[in-house]
């Protein structure tokens, strides 16, 4: 449905309010695709390029290089009207914080009707019927329609935001950390709702999170981002059950599940600056396996079964089954 082909996003770096000659490499050579009915999880630490990827996928950010193909058509060769119209209605976005994403002065009815009015969808009666259908889709009771966002709980507000994203019957939903601002008690409900909507509507979905254990629970495929690069990508069972990139293993060990006995890998130091990143593997400065071979050039792509691919000179051995079973306990280590 949608494919990024060698996408780069670079920004001009600023220092002290002035633009410098340096570039911020927010995304480098990103290639990935999302099929209909599939949930792709994007994971990585803060600043690794997740939101940039979301902006590229939703047409809000034009790549500096590379292509965004929607059903094979180059998004940036479409006219502005096509991009806003056909593409704009085919992609829905759910943001992290529903408190700031919803206009506090509009009722839920007005919030849900707004995209239908802007895109002139059907008659007035048809739009009203669609608004009620949307509320039903996300499991909210009818009286919610007359409420203001401030009168709803965080979980209910996020359901409204999801309903709004569905208003124009999109093919793709991009959800940028949609549960991070919510109470722990309602997170699972919102995650279940997203999976349920994918199943019922056959949507493609990109789910962005810094928490690989959450992503593993609902995604079909996972792409792991580090300093603007996709360092590993594949089916969730392989990436989370038998990771090949040390960074993926470190992310997995950071939030171990109750069933797993994998020892925690402590990554020391921050993610390096995205301004003029080093030519080699971006993970070199924090990797316990790094040697001179890692510092010279970005590792070429290696691949395994099911489209599993990774960029690492010293990949993790394939020790565990890709069924998601726990990997054997690795030796204790730290990058300190
Ligand atoms: N408009 C911009 N101008 C300059 N640099 C930018 C701009 N937007 C993003 N960046 C930089 O690009 C890199 C990737 O940012 P991005 O927001 O995509 O990361 P992220 O993984 O979403 O982080 P977070 O989880 O904190 O939102 C960061 O180094 C960020 O500082």
UniProtKB/TrEMBL annotation:
Alphabetically sorted, this entry's keywords are: ATP-binding, Nucleotide-binding, Transport
Task: Give the stretches traversing the membrane.
Answer: none
Return the annotated region ranges for Disordered: 300-336
Enumerate the InterPro entries for this protein: AAA+_ATPase (IPR003593), ABC_transp_ATP-bind (IPR050319), ABC_transporter-like_ATP-bd (IPR003439), ABC_transporter-like_CS (IPR017871), Oligopep_ABC_C (IPR013563), P-loop_NTPase (IPR027417)
Q: Where is the composition biased (Pro residues)?
A: 325-336
Q: Where is the ABC transporter domain?
A: 2-252
- Molecular function (Gene Ontology), one example: ATP binding
Pfam families reported for this sequence: ABC_tran, oligo_HPY
The similarity annotation says: Belongs to the ABC transporter superfamily.
Name this protein carries in UniProt? ABC transporter ATP-binding protein
State the species of origin.
Streptomyces glycanivorans
